[in-house]
Amino acid sequence: MRSKPSLKKVLLLTYYWPPAGGGGVQRPLKFCKYLPQFGWEPIVITAENTSAANIDKSLLSDTTGINAVFKAKSIDPAHLFNRYTRKPTPNNAIKKTNSFGNMLYPILNLIRLNFFIPDSKIGWYWPAKRMAEHLTKKQDIKLIFSTSPPYTTHLVAMSLKKITGLNWIADFRDPWVENIAYNTAPRLPIVKKINRHLENRVLCSADAIITVGNGMKKLLNAKLPTEKNKIHVIPNGYDPADTKPALKKAGRFYLSYFGTVYPYPASWKTLLHCLREYIKKDVHFSNVFRLRIWGTISDNVIQLIKDFIPPENLEIRSYQDHALMLEHLYTQQLLLLIIDNIPMNQLIITGKIFEYLPSGNPILALGPTDGDASDILTKFGGQGCIKHDDMNSIKDTIERNFTLWKTGKLPATPKRIPSLERQELTNRLASIFDALVKIQKR
Q1: Cβ-Cβ contacts under 8 Å for 191 (sequence gap 6 or more)
Q2: What is the pLDDT of residues 297-348, one digit of tens each?
Q3: Is 189 in the same domain as 292?
Q4: What is the CATH number of the domain that holds 349?
Q5: Is the Cβ–Cβ distance between 146 and 123 less than 8 Å?
Q6: 43-64: per-residue pLDDT in tens?
Q7: Is 1 a member of any domain?
């Protein structure tokens, strides 16, 4: 009887890992889940004591087949940051900034963005590097893979490549220098210069780069001096194991937003105005409509929403486990997606797109009509993004889908999108791994 070929090993560096929650956790987690099917065993190095914004124990179910997970200690100033800027809240309450935090937040944010380079996770660098060096000596590791943000992961990987000579793949889920989350306070010129330098070193040193969309590929390609063929697009996706066989009927008409609500109230104003007018003019709509928002919600946006929408038409919860979110996602409803009106938003492809699409539910997406997200929605969902201030299109989408709901004609069956399934996307990643190993052997 022929024995099964042994798996090749890849060292995978990711700062966040379950039970931390969020889209940034799911991408490396799902890669690790399916890599063994394509001949690769992931050896994971993650952080032991992270300051993850959300905890999601339901994601632990996907880690059961991943046996090699090592945790390096992290000195993370975000623990202090969160301690002084957040109120403790019950599980289903909205996390709010306390009054002392309101005053302290700008100062702490300024410190975070100017004294910790490339990011506040730099305290993980040395413990992770030592652990990675130890593992590469003890195990027959063939490749290095790092995913960002945070960008400290790439610095660990770059140092390890120099020491071991192993090929390295860098994954960019978001831009580095242009990342809006790293530009929420003024940054010193020297800090910007150092980050640009580090980004350039990473892009030039990595043997292959993967990213989530064509816009990101174009941005990163423009920063490379000569090499233009080492950047690959592997989008986020969905796991068929997370889907449901059918959509449940709902006794109410839900417009549902699942995920983080960022502090840009202008992105919501026209939508909220349309909803308020519809609630006033249509008694049936008023009686059955619910604006459902589950996620981490910015204080200024939550206040705006409450100013426009009556409490009886609102259902607001903080971040919920991924498994619970899926239970409610697979209900007949109109799903809401908002890509905020911020610089370079054409590059943003939120992870929730890939959760929304296979549900088969219609999607009201507000964002740039010329962006990557709009292209994906048009290709796989039939309708792209609507501009934030396009009142007529917003009204039409809401009223049209409310009519479908009333007449029982909203979609009832989820749909399969093979090219966006995590297994297929991991197959593409493994192909890049295989090609690099062949090159390394020459």
Answers
A1: 113, 114, 117
A2: 988 999 999 999 999 999 999 988 999 999 999 999 999 999 999 999 999 9
A3: no
A4: 3.40.50.2000
A5: no
A6: 999 999 777 778 899 999 999 9
A7: no
